[in-house]
Specification:
By secondary structure, this protein is α/β, with parallel strands linked by helices. It has 2 domains: 3-173, Thiolase/Chalcone synthase (Peroxisomal Thiolase, Chain A, domain 1, 3-Layer(aba) Sandwich), CATH 3.40.47; 177-325, Peroxisomal Thiolase, Chain A, domain 1 (3-Layer(aba) Sandwich), CATH 3.40.47.10. It is built from 11 helices and 13 strands. The chain has helices spanning 20-24, 31-38, 52-67, 91-99, 115-128, 152-155, 204-208, 218-239, 257-267, 278-281, 288-298, and strands at residues 3-12, 16-19, 42-45, 76-80, 105-109, 134-142, 160-170, 175-183, 191-192, 215-216, 249-252, 307-314, 318-325. The strands form 4 sheets. It has a 5-stranded mixed beta sheet with strand order 1-7-6-4-5, with helices on both faces. Strands 8-13-12-11 form a 4-stranded mixed beta sheet, with helices on both faces. α3 packs across α4 (91-99) and α8 (218-239) packs parallel to α9 (257-267). The radius of gyration is 19 Å and the shape is globular. It binds oxa(dethia)-CoA. The site of oxa(dethia)-CoA has 22 residues, from α2, α6, α8 and β12. Residues 29, 33-34, 37-38, 113, 152-153, 156, 191, 218-219, 221-222, 225, 253, 255-256, 259, 283, 313-314 line the site of oxa(dethia)-CoA.
Length: 326
């Protein structure tokens, strides 16, 4: 069986930085509250002229350059996003056009903050089955456009950005060793965007109730996130016949520093084996893991043979983990 190997990584974040001090001028909050409750210090905000497909295509172009793969070699493009350019067509189709990846088929995956791990799983299965040779997997979001900037419970937490990987069929030892995914729709209304799907269409009444913006019951989400992130990381390591001692670096979804610390504690991992950048980008949903991975790779923090685990949790609820031998 072929293995799905990551041969290139790339990321792109918008230039504009929004600091906690900037937020103090917008809502009733403080740098002290945001830093101590979340670990976030600043986040990036897309320019008016930028759309999710632009962020995604920029990240993908960087990943393709690292991999030495040209756009016309790509068979498959998957974008994990819940803030696509349009409800449909898929943002992946717009990325395909921007990259000039003429022979690729392209689709989006809607799994909120788990979108990248879900998308990587889908590409891996296609490669392992022999149906696809080269895929581009992207997590990209512009959350700043679905935030209620009057709601301090949510607007301080999120940011915009994109990360991408090139995944290729390989005969070697390196690549995805295991991938475990889960969902539980019982929790769907603890973290969601009520409008404007078919349930709450874009009527004046629904607009006046601000249903187009994200709604979240933060502390309920927090508790489940910590449990699921630690359980699924263990489950995926076991599926790969590995243990936590084999893990070089955990690359978790970056939602809140306290969630990351609690997850690390449950897994018995010391701080230096958990990658954290939530302080600089906030929660970029499906983009957090591929942005973090790109920083790890370009910062020479991973060597050939190292075991990495990507660990995600998000709205749905959805959660999942991927074990990769680098
Ligand atoms: O990607 C997955 C998606 N989301 C998450 O993973 C988020 C998970 N949850 C969290 O990260 C945390 O629950 C939050 C950071 C959202 C909130 O932290 P918390 O420690 O759970 O605070 P809380 O919701 O219990 O709120 C405590 C207080 C409340 O005031 P009262 O009612 O006690 O007077 C809030 O109104 O903090 C208040 N508060 C704020 N104060 C200043 C909430 N947001 C803010 C704010 N600035 N931005």
């Amino acid at each position: 069986m072929k293995r799905a190997r990551i041969t290139g990584t790339g990321s792109y974040v918008p230039e504009k930085i929004l600091t906690n001090a900037d937020l103090e001028k917008i809502v009733d909050t403080s740098d002290e509250w945001i830093s101590t409750r979340t670990g976030i210090r600043e986040r990036r905000i897309a320019a008016v002229s930028e759309n999710t497909s632009d962020l995604a295509a920029n990240a993908a172009a960087r990943a393709l350059e690292m991999a030495g793969v040209s756009a016309d070699e790509i068979d498959l493009i998957i974008v994990g996003t819940i803030t696509g350019d349009y409800p449909w067509p898929a943002t992946a189709c717009l990325v395909q056009e921007k990259l000039g990846a003429k022979k690729a088929f392209a689709y989006d995956i809607s799994a909120a903050c788990s979108g990248f791990v879900y998308a990587l799983d889908a590409a891996t299965r296609q490669i392992e089955a022999g149906a696809v040779q080269k895929a581009v997997v992207i997590g990209a979001e512009i959350f700043s456009r679905i935030l209620d900037w009057d709601d301090r419970n949510t607007c301080v937490l999120f940011g915009d950005g994109a990360g991408a990987v090139v995944v290729e069929a390989s005969n070697g030892e390196a690549g995805v060793l295991a991938s475990c995914l889960h969902s539980d729709g019982n929790y769907s209304e603890l973290l969601y965007q009520p409008g404007f799907g078919t349930r709450f269409p874009a009527t004046d009444e629904n607009l006046s109730q601000k249903l187009q913006y994200i709604k979240m019951q933060g502390n309920e989400v927090f508790k489940v996130a910590v449990r699921m992130l630690s359980e699924v990381a263990q489950e995926a390591l076991e599926a790969a016949d590995l243990s936590i001692d084999d893990l070089h670096l955990l690359i978790p979804h970056q939602a809140n520093r306290r969630i990351l610390d609690a997850t690390a504690k449950r897994l018995g991992l010391p701080e230096e084996r958990v990658y954290i950048n939530v302080d600089r980008f906030g929660n970029t949903s499906a983009a957090t893991i591929p942005i973090a991975l790109d920083e790890v790779v370009r910062g020479d923090k991973v060597s050939s043979g190292d075991i990495l685990v990507f660990d995600a949790f998000g709205g749905g609820f959805t959660w999942g983990a991927t074990v990769v031998r680098w």
